[in-house]
Design goal:
Blueprint lengths: L2 H23 L9 H6 L6 H12 L3 H22 L1 H13 L1 E4 L2 E4 H10 L3 H37 L3 H9 L3 H31 L8 H9 L12 H10 L11 E4 L11 E6 L3 E5 L5 H19 L7 H5 L3 H12 L5 H8 L6 H27 L7 H16 L18 H22 L7 H11 L7 H9 L6 H6 L2
Parallel strand pairs: 3-5
Antiparallel strand pairs: 1-2, 4-5
Helix pairs in contact: 3-4, 4-7, 5-7, 6-7, 6-10, 9-16, 12-14, 14-18, 16-17, 16-18
Length: 491
């Protein structure tokens, strides 16, 4: 294998496929048309190529092992994606063209998701949930077929089960991570339940035990605090925050901020690195309220990581690597809102406002939800037959145990992320709490106003994805990843 040619073609593939994905999520294209791109680059994901990469990895010197493992991860991920591209196109087309009727008006599938977050009328939220559920039910057989193809293809290509394969590719011990998460769920349960009950009563008018699946997203969305996040000003507040660290978005010619509102545009902000570091997009709808602003901060944190990656870095560290690294910077920016000084400096929210405690609950809810989903996905990918009654009940039991509220089991496969992506979020949450503590210790709680903090960030970003979060934790703190900083936040 000519590795340099392989890397260049892999770069071209990622550039073309990511741009196609960006156009679909941005509402610029109804169909997600990846088939021609996969056909053009099918040699990258051929069984022979993957077997040769396995051989090269097995024989690699220690300093080359990481690059080859990242390359192998890329090849396997896209070989699996290639196996399900027809299902992906069918799912994308069904969601993009579905016409829902809510409150007597036609609403898109994506717009109904926005209603679940923002609509104060409980009956309309219920209608939105039921309409979306009908589309999700239509898609479920396609998702089952898609998962079955994933499992079979992983075994064919590597001789490993789906779970074993990603443990090897990530170098993450899933059994150890699951024990850590189960311990964390137990340690944070009392805090979580008491705050959930308090804010459910205050914001919904009834207790957590009465919450239905169409209530939880609305509660966590935090509409009660939307007035603190003035519409039309949050992008300028983000820019002012970054200027304090001498990070000027206007000067970044490699970053495109796509704020146009299109009917089929995804309701969720999204960062797409088409060419690293030269062409990075952040797509978002017009900002409204707490959750939209947190999502924007999150995606811009990830985008800056790509924008400041050194052009001298090798392909694997520009485009591939440990995805938890980018998610860490995303969370670092998102959680400016856990800093009472930042909240006062930019939003005039006093330190004794219950918003700060609500935002801590919101973070804990998401962390616990991802932890429960990971534990569910371990069972889902165990190799047992994919029977809808079984996996739906496993999903419901896992999430209801972690979240102490009613869960709709019909969403089980709708929420599954490919290739255990949730592990990247979970490890990023852990490392971000440590990294934020380091910034506080080095530069003070107002580190966002220190140019030296910006310089430190740029030095970290310049390495791209050269290091995993565990390796960076070792370099900065000389210690392993530790959940205690998150637990201390609750005290």
């Amino acid at each position: 294998m000519d590795l340099e040619r392989y890397r260049e073609r892999a770069r071209q593939f990622l550039s073309e496929s990511r741009f196609e994905g960006y156009q679909h999520k941005a509402g610029l294209k109804t169909d997600l048309d990846l088939s021609p791109i996969y056909e053009k680059f099918e040699d990258l994901f051929a069984e022979s190529a993957i077997k040769e990469l396995f051989l090269l990895h097995r024989e690699a010197a220690p300093k080359e092992e990481t690059r080859l493992r990242f390359l192998l991860n890329f090849a396997i991920d896209h070989a699996l994606d290639a196996a399900v591209r027809d299902e992906d196109a069918q799912i994308a087309r069904t969601r993009a063209t579905a016409d829902l009727r809510i409150g007597g008006e036609e609403v898109s599938f994506h717009s109904a998701a926005v209603m679940l977050m923002q609509e104060p009328d409980r009956s309309l939220r219920r209608e939105a949930m039921e309409q979306r559920r009908a589309v999700i039910a239509e898609i479920e057989p396609v998702r089952i077929r898609r998962l079955q193809k994933f499992h079979a293809r992983a075994q064919e290509l590597t001789g490993r089960s789906y779970s074993e394969l990603y443990e090897f590719l990530f170098k993450v011990n899933f059994e150890l991570l699951s024990r850590q998460l189960q311990n964390f769920l137990g340690a944070s349960e009392s805090y979580y339940k008491s705050r959930l009950e308090r804010f459910s009563q205050e914001h919904l008018g009834f207790g957590a035990s009465e919450m239905e699946p169409w209530d939880s997203t609305y509660l966590v969305y935090g509409s009660a605090y939307d007035s603190l996040f003035p519409e039309g000003r949050m992008l300028s507040i983000l820019k002012r925050t970054l200027l304090g660290m001498e990070l000027d978005l206007k000067k970044l010619k490699n970053l495109t901020m796509d704020s146009a509102d299109r009917p089929s545009k995804s309701p969720y902000a999204h960062c797409t690195a088409v060419d690293v570091p030269d062409r990075v997009f952040v797509s978002f709808r017009p900002l409204r309220g707490l959750t939209d602003c947190l999502a924007l901060f999150n995606e811009v944190g990830q985008a800056l990581h790509y924008c400041y990656t050194s052009d001298e870095e090798v392909f694997e560290y520009k485009y591939l690597g440990d995805k938890a690294m980018g998610e860490t910077y995303a969370f670092l920016f998102q959680y400016f809102t856990l800093n009472d000084d930042w909240c006062w400096d930019f939003l005039k929210i006093p330190a004794d406002s219950d918003f700060l405690e609500f935002n801590q609950l919101r973070k804990l809810y998401l962390l616990r939800r991802h932890a429960a989903r990971f534990l569910f996905e371990l069972k889902l990918h165990s190799g047992a037959p994919l029977e809808s009654d079984t996996f739906r009940e496993q999903y419901r039991t896992s999430l209801e145990g972690a979240l102490s509220m009613a869960i709709d089991p019909a969403l089980a496969l709708h929420e599954v992320e490919d290739s255990f992506y949730g592990t990247h979020h979970l490890r990023a949450w852990i490392f971000e709490a440590e990294l934020r503590q380091i910034f506080n210790n080095r530069f003070g709680k107002r580190w966002y106003s220190r140019p030296a903090a910006g310089d430190f960030l740029k030095s970290l970003w310049s390495h791209g994805h050269r290091y995993t979060v565990e390796e960076l934790a070792q370099q900065i703190r000389l210690s392993e990843l530790d959940l205690s900083p998150i637990t201390r936040e609750l005290k």
